[in-house]
Structures are given as structure tokens and as C-alpha cells.
Amino acid sequence: MRISLLSIGLIAALSTLLTLLKPAAAFEVEEHHRFGTGEARTLRILSTTDIALLTPMILTFLQDHPGVAIDYTSASSAELMTAVMQEQHPFDLALSSAMDLQIKLANDGYTQAHRSKAVDLIPVWGNWRNHVFAFSQEPASIVVSPSAFAELEIPQSRQQLISLLRKHPDRFRGRIGTYDVSSSGLGYLFATQDARTSESYWRLMEIMGSLRAKLFCCSSDMIEAVARGEIAVAYNVLGSYARARKDLGDRILIIEPEDYTNMMLRTAVILTTAQQPDLAGDFIDHLLDAAWNSPIVVEYPFHRYPTTGSARNVPFRPIQLGPGLLVFLDHLKRKRFLSEWHSTVQQN
Q1: Is pLDDT of 83 > 90?
Q2: CA 96 to chain centroid
Q3: One-character DSSP codes across 94-152
Q4: Tens-place pLDDT, residues 138-192
Q5: What are phi and psi of 233, to 5 degrees?
Q6: Is the pLDDT of residue 311 over 80?
Q7: Among 101, 97, 95, 106, residue whose Cα is nearest residue 128
Q8: Are residues 58 and 105 in contact, defined by beta-carbon separation less than 8 angstroms?
């Protein structure tokens, strides 16, 4: 019995040692680039924003900060959370399109406050407790292929799209796309906001599911699929990415639904792991000044939308920063929402 117990103990100890020696799983990086030649200070940014989109803003920042370099890593919103919350990489700044996840970082103590010099420029709904700062308004748009709608009226609202799909199921079967909300943080945010805003969302999801909707990880893939003619309609595409694709010419058409258009706020937070918090704050101020000040700077990559007005006269509805965004991050609520969504969209 002693020999048996000793053997079991040795096996367990060896197993533990092998586990400790095994390299830890690292978050998945999409792109990485270093800007500038500065050696004294390096600002480390983790972002869900494509590098090419923010490059002009980064270069103008470096012009005003000689001796500084920027180390820029892009990843999905889920991978950003892994890097910050689980692996605790020493990034200074996190930029994300997933507003709810940024609020979670702040709420759970992974961010630090910043007294921004540009705070008076920001709409009240674009700053949460001086921890989370919005530097863009970007619509959840519908992107369509004009050629696929030949002889049909282009829908301008969800109800018009629903009616069109019901009347012409054969034309659009297998040719509709949207986010896979179980894997996309931004897709999940748009879907939950839709569900809170209007009952038409679930009717649209039901008809899309019946027409075998295709699911995508990201806006760029949906935009490309529309341009290639693989799908005719992409729902809840990030409008800023579609606008940036000037090269696609008349192969895509961007619709901002007139019933309502949810506006995602791309946000910045300074992380508690920041080794250059002051430099991170300067970069936030650089973004905020470009986003909310006048005149518009040419390097700013996002379209400027009105910041005032009511739902009665404009369709644009900025998603409010705040703890309300945490509701659908609750484990049970998320599980129920995803279950309903999958049964509606992925019909057998």
C-alpha cells in the first residue's frame, strides 16, 4: 500500500511539474506594428481597431512627441479581454469597439482615471467616470449589393427589409450575412441593443434564419462578401469600416436605417498595468480633440455625426456608456440571449 501511495504521489507531482513547465496560452494577435524610433519612452497600445485606420492619428501624435515610440497591437475584443484580465500583459492603453467590455474593465478595477484636458468637448454620454472615453460615433449599418437589388426598391428601414425578404425569398436565400454574436463582442453588443430597442429585431432575425443567413466574425469580412457578390445583404455592419472602403466603388451601398441607427462609441481606457500612464493620457486627449473639437482634422478616420437631437428628428442613437451595458454580460442573461438567438437564426 505504501509503494502504491508513493507511486501515486510521484505521478501527481510529475503531472503538476509538467503543467507548470507548459507554456501559457497567449492571446491571439491579429496585427502588430511599431511606430517611431524613440528609445526613451514607448506607449504600448492594445486595440480592436485596424492599424491602417489609426495610422494617420498615430503619426501626428508622434510629431508632437519627439523621442516617443508607439507599439501597437490589434486583436479581437475577446482576445483583448484575455490579454488584460487573464494574462495581465503590460499594455498602457486599450482601445475597443466593444463598449460593454470596456465598461466591464473599468467596473472590475482594470483601468485608472484620467483627468482629460478635452473633457469639456465630450458629450455627457461619451465619458464614464473619467475612466472610459468615447472617441468616435460609428453606426450599425446595413450594407447591400446594388446589383442584387436590381428592379427592387432599396430598403431604408428594418420593416422594409423584412417585407422585401418575405416577398423574394428565392432571391435572398443563402445571401444574407450578419455577425456571429457568440464569438464577436461587437456583434453581441449590437444584437442586445437591437433587442432592447425594437421588437422588429427578432422578426428580422427569424426571417434571416429561415433564409439560411451566413454568420461572420467581423465587419470587414461581411463587406468583402457583399462586394464579391457572395451575399446581397449584410446586417449590423460597422459603418465606419464600410465608408473607409472607397476602393469598392459602386459594389456596395451603405444604409443607415431610418427607423433607428444604433451608434457604437469606440472607447479608450488607461490600464492599471500602464507603465506610461501620462503618455497614455496624452494620446487619449489627442483622440478626443480630433473626435469632438472643431475644425475637423484630416487625419481623423471616422465620420462626424451630430451629437444633439432627439429620436423624433434623427435616427442616430448613441449607445450610452454606463453600467447598463453590463446587463447582458451577466452569465445567465448572456446564456439565455445566445440560446434564443441561435434557435432563431440557426434554424434546422
Answers
A1: yes
A2: 6
A3: EEES-HHHHHHHHHTT-EE----TTGGGS-GGGEETTTEEE---EEEEEEE-GGGGTTS
A4: 999 999 999 999 889 999 999 999 999 999 999 999 999 999 999 888 899 999 9
A5: -135, 135
A6: no
A7: 106
A8: no
- Name the residue among 149, 103, 142 with its Cα closest to residue 260: 142
Phi-psi region of 249 (alpha: psi -120 to 50; beta: other; left: phi over 0): left
Contact 83, 44 (CB under 8 A): no
pLDDT at 76: 87
Alpha carbon of 120 to those of 123, 142, 285: distances in Å? 8, 33, 11
Closest CA to 230 of 153, 177, 296: 177
Report the pLDDT value the prediction gives residue 26, as an integer from 0 to 100: 83
Name the grid cell of 152: 427592387
Domains of the chain: residue spans and CATH = 31-137+265-307 (3.40.190.10), 138-263+330-345 (3.40.190.10)
Q: Do residues 225 and 142 touch, judged by C-beta distance below 8 A?
A: no
pLDDT tier, 294 (very low <50, low <70, confident <90, very high otherwise): confident
Residue with cell 497567449: 26
